[in-house]
Amino acid sequence: MEIIGYIASLVIGISLGLIGGGGSILTVPVLVYLFGVSPVTATAYSLFIVGATSLVGSYPKYKSGEINLKTALIFGIPSIAAVFATRAFIVPAIPAQVFSIGDLLVTKSLLMMILFAILMVVASVTMIRDKKQVATSENQQQHFNYPMILLEGAVVGVLTGLVGAGGGFLIIPALVILSNLPMKQAVGTSLLIIAAKSLIGFTGDLGKTTMNWTLLLSITGLAIVGIFIGNQLSKKVSANSLKKGFGWFVLVMGVYIIIKELFFPMGSGH
Q: Tell me: the pLDDT tens digits for 39-49?
């Protein structure tokens, strides 16, 4: 299973390089089901893997002028604060046994995985759906909807903190609609925001979780190789058809996790 896990780690990076998001949605399932990491620890590992990979991937975007630093700052500050607070205070405060419905005992691990699977299903729908992109001119004046950007930044931060996903599928549409950014700039800016909030969120776990640094750095290294492959492929492949295909894959994975966790919970790294 570990060999499949290492191949999947490469795919995480390729996805981030190709479509500017989506890869993080695979990280937790890969860690839990292929490497046997517990769900709560997997969300911490995911923040580091996704953060480091996005940081490296954002450098070529910055060189190409595809990152808007002002937008990254306005969206990033509430997002970073929310993700750090969630990892440092909210996640540790969730009890080991949350509640029960009849015979079903909802543990902290089960809650994390179900939350994550729901997020996967929502993400997949946004990737599959054919949305007419709002065309934004490179020279068009930016108008910031500050209250909405700050609110969305905080919401994305809390979600990132809870489930360890970068949230690119939430950030990119928000940047296009609320910050009037062209699509290419939205993708590049999203990578920088994901990198900052994921890595800072990860620091909220240091000292609270025992880290297997060998595993963590191996997966991160492969994901970083993947993001460079993805960046090159993005110049040759239609991003739209790729996004749709990846969306269907994420949808199947999300449904699989919900069924597995609710009906066949044994042996999933809990």
A: 888 888 998 99
Rg (Cα) of the chain, in Å, rounded? 18
Q: What is the pLDDT of residues 68-96, one digit of tens each?
A: 998 899 888 998 899 889 888 888 888 98
Instruction: With beta carbons less than 8 A apart as the criterion, state whether 160 and 166 touch.
Output: yes
Residue recorded with tokens 């776990």 = 205
The domains of the chain are located at 2-263
Q: Which of 31, 20, 12, 226 is nearest to 127 (CA)?
A: 20
| Residue 106: φ, ψ to 5° | -90, 105
- In DSSP terms, 99 is beta-bridged to 106
DSSP H helical ranges for 129-235: 146-163, 168-178, 183-203, 213-233
Q: Which position has the token pair 């994975």?
A: 253
**Predicted local distance difference test score (pLDDT) of residue 269:** 45
Bridge-partner residues for 104, per DSSP?
101
Whole-model pTM?
0.77
